[in-house]
C-alpha cells in the first residue's frame, strides 16, 4: 500500500514537472521579451535589451527554464510587471478565499447529491424521481452565471434577503464570519454541482440496487435502511470518487464566472482581471495551478478509491 | 411428518411498463420437515419467481396476486414487511446462483456472515463473530478464523459459494431455498457443494427447496420433484416416479431431450419443437399444447388443473402412461454419412506443441511483471477433415485460449497451428486475412456475441464484404440461403438481435460462422447458455450442417454429455495440459486418466438409480493457480493415486489403444506396451 502510494506520488510529480515545462514554454512563446512590455512602446531597443539582459531574459530557453524551476521550488511563481509585484503576493489570500468557496460548496454538494441520488434510485419512475430529475436537468443545462443572475435578482434585489455581492473581506477569517454574504455564491455553485452529481449518483445507485448482493442483503432480513446504508452506499459511491476527483479543476473554472459575477476576490476574479490586463505571468500561474489541481485531484481520487474499494488494494 | 411450507394456488405477476408478465399461476407445493423438494423447469418457467415469492423478495413490479404461502401454518402472503423481515434469513434462508455477485465486494466475509446473526439473534458483536466462525467452519472453509477478514474477491468461486451457504445457515433456518446453487460452478466443485448441502440437511434436518434446471442435480438428492412449465406446475411426484413413470408429456419430452452418455450420436437428438409461450400473453388452454405431441382439441380450449392421487399430481387431459419416451418412439433421423478423412491424409488442422502464457502485472502505472499465467502448456492435437473434435475441461484449464489460438485470435508464445499443412502464424497481412475465412468461431454468449445495433442481414453480410467475395446481390441471396439452412425465416434478416430468443440467436451465430464456408468452426461452449429443449435443437442443427457443409468442428465445452454426443474424438484438458485423448466411447468406457474418470463420475446424471448408488468419488480440492502450476503432473495435488514420482517427473502421453492416449504415471487401465507407445506418442 505505502509502496503503491509512493510510486503514485512520484508519477504525479513527474506530470507536474511536465505541466511546468509546457506552461513555461507557452509563457516564452507569448512574451519572450518582457522588457518591451515593461518599458513601453516608446522605449529604445537598447533599453529593452539592457532590461532583458539584466533580468536574464536573453539566456537560452533551457537556462531560463532552469531558473524558473528553481524559483518555483522556492514558491516563487514569477513577477507581474503590470501590477508591479510578485505573482505569489498577488495570489496571496485569493487562493485561500477561492479554496473556501470551492471547498464548502463541493462538500455541501456531495452531502446533498449522494442521498438525493439514492432517494431517486429507490423511488425510480415515481413522482419524486421525476421532480428531482427535471430540476436537475434544468439546473444542469443552465449556464452557472445565468443561475447566479436569477439568484441575485430574486434574493438580493427583489426580496433583499441577501446582499448581491459576496464578502469583500480581505482575510479568509473575515469571509467565514460573513456567511450571509457568501450564501448566494455558495448556493449557486452547490446547485449547479448537485444537478450533475445527483444524476451520476442516481444511475450508480440504480446499478447497485440491481446487484445480487443487494438481493442477498434483503434475503438476510435487513430493513430497507440497513440495506441502503450498509450495502448500497459504499458500493455506489465508488464511481463517484473518480468523478469528483476529476471535477476539482472544473470547480476552478466554475469559480471564474461566479467570482466575477459576485465580485468575490478569489482566483477566478484575479484571472479575469489578468486576462483584461494581458498579465501573462499571472495567467500562466493560474494555468499551472489548474494543472497541479488536476493531478492532485486524480491522486486523491486514486488514494480514496484504494481505501474505499478492497478489490483495488494493491500491494 | 410435519408440513413446514405449504403453497396453495400461488399467482405472481410482474408489472412491466406496458404489459404484465403472468410469471407464476396456480402453483401448489409443500415441503415436509427434513425433506428436499426439487423444483425444476427451464428458464422463464417461474421457478425462481416462486422462490422469491416465498421470500417476499420479488423484483420491481412483482406482486403476489393470489393464493397463500404458509410457513408452519402461518400465512406469509400479506404479512407486513417488518414481520416478514423477521422470517427472512431467520426461518427461511435463500442462496443464489452467482456467488461472485451475491456477496458484497466491499465487506469482509466475517461481517457478511455475522450480519444476520446480529440481526436475528441479537447478542454482542463478539457472539455473532463466534457464530460466523462456527458456520464458516461447518461449510468447510479451511482456517475459518483466519479468513474472517478476507474479502469475497480473495476467495475462489467454490469457497464463495460456501460463504453464501454459511450466511444462509447462520440462523438455523427451517427452510433453505437454493436457487440454482451450483449452476455457475465447475462439475468437480458442483459435486462438492451438492455433497455439502446433503450433509448439512442430514445434520440439521432442514427442509430444502432446490430450484434447478438440471435434472441430474435433482435425481441424486430430491425426495420429490415438482416440474414447472410456463408459469404453471405441471407435475409433482416422487423423484423415482418422475424419472420412470412420469405422466405429463412435457416431463417426458424434457427428459428425452437431455443427451445421455449412451446416446447414439449418429442419430438426431430428440427435441421439443418450438419455444415456450410469451407469458405476457399466454395461450388459452394448456400452455404446453402448442409444443405437445399428444395434444387434442380440448387442450386448446380449457386449461387442465392439477389432479391425481396424493403422491402424484399432473395437470394434463391426456397424460402419458408408458413411462420414459422409448427410443423407437422418438422421431430421430440419421445425421447422414459424413465423409471423414482417412488416417493417412494430411490432417485439416494440426496443433503442434502450442504454448501460451499471459503476464501477471502489479501496480497501476508502473506495471511490473510479477509472474505469468500458464494458460496452455504444450498442447498437440489434430483434427481431420469432416471430424468433430471435442475439448473438455473445467474453467481455467486453457481450452478457450487454445480455441482462440487455433482461429488466430491469439498469438501463441511458441508452437504451430497448421491448416492443411500451412502454419497460420507464419502468414501476415492479406494472406492471413484470406486464410481466416477457413477458420470461424461460434461463441457461447448468444447475447454478447452479436452486435446489438446491426441487423441480422448486416451481420451475415459483413464477413462477405470483408473478404470481398460476391456482389451485393449475391450476398443477399447467400444470407437468405443461410437463414433457411439454420431454420429461420428470411424476414428475420431485417430484425435486430434483441428481437430473437437465445436459441434463435445461437442459430444466427452459426449462420454467421458459416457465411464464408469455413473448413473448421471452433465452437466455444455453443449450447451452454441454452435451455435443454432448445439445446437439442441447436445440437441437431450443428450436426446436420456439418454434414451438408463438409466441415470440421472443434467443440469446446465443460459439459461432457454434450461433447460426447457431438464429438468423434475427445481431448481432456487440465490446467493447460492435454491429459487424455480418445474416441468418445473409449473415453467413457475405459478412461485412463484419474481426472477424466473423476469428471465422468461427477456429472450428475438424470437417473435416480445411478445417482444414489454412485460411490461419491468427488474430486477433492480446487484447481491450483495457473501462475504456479504444480511440478510434475499438474493433477497430482488432487489425485487419489498420486505418488512421489508424480511430483518429480511430468508424465508423457502414452498409448492405451487405437487413438487413445493419456498422460499419467498410474493410469486406471494398462497402457499398450512401451514400444508401441513411443511411436504413437508424436502422432496424435
From TrEMBL, chain A:
Signal peptide: none annotated. This is Peptide/nickel transport system permease protein. The keyword Transport applies. Belongs to the binding-protein-dependent transport system permease family. CDD domains: TM_PBP2. It is a multi-pass membrane protein. It holds the Pfam family BPD_transp_1. InterPro entries: BPD_transp_1_N (IPR045621), MetI-like (IPR000515), MetI-like_sf (IPR035906). Its main location: membrane. PROSITE patterns: ABC_TM1. The chain crosses the membrane at residues 9-30, 99-119, 139-162, 237-262, 282-305.
Automatic annotation (TrEMBL), chain B:
The keyword Cell membrane applies. GO terms for molecular function: ATP binding; ATP hydrolysis activity. Keywords: ATP-binding, Cell membrane, Membrane, Nucleotide-binding, Transport. InterPro entries: AAA+_ATPase (IPR003593), ABC_Ni/Peptide_Import (IPR050388), ABC_transporter-like_ATP-bd (IPR003439), ABC_transporter-like_CS (IPR017871), Oligopep_ABC_C (IPR013563), P-loop_NTPase (IPR027417). It is a peripheral membrane protein. Its main location: membrane. Residues 5-255, 349-600 form the ABC transporter domain. NCBIfam families: oligo_HPY, PRK10419.1, PRK11308.1. SUPFAM superfamilies: P-loop containing nucleoside triphosphate hydrolases. One of its GO terms (biological process) is peptide transport. This is Peptide/nickel transport system ATP-binding protein. Belongs to the ABC transporter superfamily. It comes from Ferrithrix thermotolerans DSM 19514.
Amino acid at each position: 500500500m505505502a509502496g503503491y502510494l509512493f510510486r503514485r506520488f512520484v508519477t504525479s510529480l513527474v506530470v507536474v514537472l511536465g505541466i511546468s515545462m509546457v506552461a513555461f514554454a507557452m509563457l516564452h512563446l507569448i512574451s519572450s521579451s518582457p522588457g518591451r512590455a515593461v518599458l513601453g512602446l516608446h522605449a529604445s531597443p537598447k533599453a529593452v535589451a539592457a532590461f532583458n539582459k539584466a533580468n536574464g531574459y536573453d539566456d537560452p530557453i533551457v537556462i531560463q527554464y532552469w531558473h524558473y524551476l528553481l524559483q518555483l521550488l522556492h514558491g516563487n511563481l514569477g513577477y507581474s510587471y503590470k501590477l508591479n509585484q510578485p505573482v505569489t503576493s498577488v495570489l496571496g489570500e485569493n487562493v485561500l478565499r477561492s479554496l473556501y468557496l470551492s471547498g464548502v460548496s463541493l462538500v455541501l454538494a456531495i452531502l446533498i447529491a449522494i442521498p438525493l441520488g439514492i432517494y431517486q434510485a429507490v423511488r425510480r419512475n415515481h413522482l419524486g424521481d421525476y421532480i428531482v430529475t427535471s430540476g436537475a436537468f434544468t439546473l444542469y443545462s443552465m449556464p452557472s452565471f445565468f443561475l447566479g443572475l436569477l439568484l441575485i435578482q430574486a434574493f438580493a434585489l427583489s426580496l433583499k434577503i441577501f446582499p448581491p455581492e459576496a464578502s469583500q473581506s480581505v482575510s479568509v477569517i473575515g469571509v467565514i464570519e460573513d456567511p450571509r454574504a457568501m450564501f448566494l455564491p455558495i448556493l449557486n455553485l452547490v446547485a449547479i454541482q448537485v444537478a450533475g452529481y445527483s444524476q451520476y449518483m442516481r444511475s450508480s445507485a440504480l446499478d447497485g440496487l440491481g446487484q445480487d448482493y443487494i438481493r442477498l442483503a434483503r434475503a438476510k432480513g435487513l430493513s430497507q435502511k440497513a440495506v441502503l446504508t450498509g450495502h448500497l452506499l459504499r458500493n455506489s459511491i465508488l464511481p463517484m470518487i473518480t468523478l469528483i476527483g476529476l471535477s476539482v479543476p472544473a470547480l476552478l473554472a466554475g469559480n471564474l464566472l461566479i467570482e466575477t459575477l459576485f465580485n468575490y476576490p478569489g482566483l477566478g476574479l484575479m484571472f479575469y482581471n489578468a486576462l483584461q490586463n494581458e498579465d501573462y505571468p499571472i495567467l500562466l500561474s493560474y494555468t499551472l495551478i489548474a494543472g497541479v489541481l488536476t493531478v492532485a485531484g486524480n491522486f486523491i481520487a486514486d488514494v480514496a478509491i484504494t481505501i474505499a474499494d478492497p478489490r483495488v488494494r494493491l500491494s | 411428518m410435519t408440513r413446514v411450507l405449504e403453497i396453495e394456488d400461488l399467482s405472481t405477476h410482474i408489472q412491466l411498463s406496458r404489459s404484465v408478465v403472468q410469471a407464476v399461476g396456480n402453483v401448489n407445493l409443500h415441503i415436509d420437515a427434513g425433506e428436499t423438494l426439487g423444483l425444476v423447469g427451464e428458464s422463464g418457467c417461474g421457478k425462481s419467481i416462486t422462490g422469491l415469492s416465498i421470500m417476499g423478495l420479488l423484483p420491481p413490479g412483482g406482486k403476489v396476486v393470489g393464493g397463500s404461502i404458509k410457513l408452519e401454518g402461518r400465512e406469509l402472503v400479506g404479512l407486513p414487511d417488518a414481520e416478514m423481515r423477521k422470517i427472512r434469513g431467520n426461518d427461511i434462508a435463500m442462496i443464489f446462483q452467482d456467488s461472485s455477485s451475491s456477496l458484497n465486494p466491499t465487506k469482509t466475509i466475517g461481517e457478511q456472515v455475522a450480519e444476520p446473526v446480529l440481526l436475528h439473534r441479537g447478542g454482542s458483536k463478539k457472539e455473532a463473530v463466534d457464530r460466523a466462525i462456527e458456520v464458516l467452519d461447518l461449510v468447510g472453509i479451511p482456517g475459518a478464523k483466519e479468513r474472517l477478514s478476507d474479502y469475497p474477491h480473495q476467495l475462489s468461486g467454490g469457497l464463495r459459494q460456501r460463504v453464501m451457504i454459511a450466511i444462509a445457515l447462520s440462523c438455523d433456518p427451517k427452510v433453505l431455498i437454493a436457487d440454482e446453487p451450483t449452476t455457475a460452478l465447475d462439475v468437480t466443485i458442483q459435486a462438492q457443494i451438492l455433497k455439502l448441502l446433503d450433509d448439512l440437511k442430514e445434520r440439521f434436518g432442514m427442509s430444502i427447496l432446490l430450484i434447478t434446471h438440471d435434472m441430474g442435480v435433482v435425481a441424486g438428492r430430491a425426495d420429490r420433484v415438482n416440474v414447472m412449465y410456463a408459469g404453471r406446475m405441471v407435475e409433482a411426484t416422487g423423484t423415482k416416479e418422475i424419472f420412470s413413470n412420469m405422466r405429463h408429456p412435457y416431463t417426458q419430452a424434457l427428459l428425452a431431450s437431455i443427451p445421455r452418455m449412451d446416446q447414439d450420436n449418429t442419430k438426431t437428438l430428440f427435441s421439443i419443437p418450438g419455444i415456450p409461450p410469451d407469458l405476457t400473453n399466454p395461450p388459452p388452454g394448456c400452455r404446453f399444447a402448442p409444443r405437445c405431441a399428444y395434444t387434442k382439441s380440448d387442450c386448446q380450449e380449457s386449461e387442465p388443473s392439477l389432479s391425481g392421487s396424493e403422491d402424484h399430481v399432473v395437470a394434463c387431459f391426456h397424460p402419458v402412461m408408458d413411462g420414459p419416451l422409448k427410443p423407437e418412439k422418438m422421431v430421430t433421423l440419421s445425421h447422414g454419412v459424413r465423409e471423414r478423412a482417412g488416417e493417412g491424409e494430411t490432417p485439416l488442422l494440426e496443433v503442434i506443441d502450442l504454448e501460451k502464457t499471459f503476464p501477471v502485472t502489479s501496480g497501476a502505472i508502473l506495471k511490473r511483471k510479477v509472474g505469468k499465467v500458464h494458460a496452455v502448456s504444450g498442447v498437440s492435437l489434430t483434427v481431420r477433415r469432416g471430424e468433430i473434435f471435442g475439448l473438455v475441461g473445467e474453467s481455467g484449464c486453457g481450452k478457450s485460449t487454445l480455441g482462440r489460438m487455433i482461429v488466430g485470435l491469439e498469438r501463441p508464445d511458441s508452437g504451430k497451428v497448421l491448416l492443411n499443412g500451412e502454419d497460420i502464424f507464419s502468414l501476415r497481412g492479406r494472406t492471413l486475412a484470406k486464410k481466416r475465412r477457413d477458420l470461424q468461431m461460434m461463441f457461447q454468449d448468444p447475447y454478447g456475441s452479436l452486435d446489438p445495433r446491426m441487423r441480422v442481414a448486416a451481420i451475415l453480410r459483413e464477413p462477405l464484404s470483408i473478404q470481398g467475395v460476391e456482389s451485393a446481390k449475391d450476398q443477399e441471396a447467400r444470407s437468405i440461403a443461410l437463414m433457411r439452412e439454420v431454420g429461420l425465416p428470411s424476414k428475420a434478416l431485417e430484425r435486430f438481435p434483441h428481437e430473437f430468443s437465445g436459441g434463435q440467436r445461437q442459430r444466427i451465430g452459426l449462420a454467421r460462422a458459416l457465411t464464408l464456408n469455413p473448413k473448421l468452426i471452433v465452437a466455444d461452449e455453443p449450447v451452454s447458455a441454452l435451455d435443454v429443449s432448445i439445446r437439442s435443437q441447436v445440437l441437431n442443427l450443428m450436426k446436420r450442417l456439418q454434414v451438408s457443409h463438409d466441415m470440421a468442428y472443434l467443440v469446446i465445452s465443460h459439459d461432457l454429455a454434450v461433447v460426447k454426443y457431438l464429438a468423434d474424438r475427445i481431448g481432456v484438458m487440465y490446467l493447460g495440459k492435454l491429459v487424455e485423448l480418445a474416441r468418445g466411447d473409449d473415453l467413457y468406457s475405459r478412461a485412463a486418466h484419474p481426472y477424466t474418470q473423476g469428471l465422468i463420475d461427477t456429472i450428475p446424471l438424470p437417473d435416480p438409480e445411478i445417482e444414489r448408488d454412485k460411490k461419491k468419488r468427488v474430486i477433492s480440492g480446487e484447481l491450483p493457480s495457473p501462475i504456479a502450476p504444480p511440478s510434475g503432473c499438474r493433477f497430482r495435488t488432487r489425485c487419489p493415486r498420486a505418488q512421489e514420482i508424480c511430483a518429480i517427473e511430468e508424465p508423457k502421453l502414452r498409448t492405451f489403444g487405437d487413438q487413445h492416449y493419456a498422460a499419467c504415471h498410474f493410469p486406471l487401465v494398462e497402457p499398450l506396451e512401451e514400444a508401441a507407445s513411443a511411436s504413437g506418442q508424436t502422432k496424435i
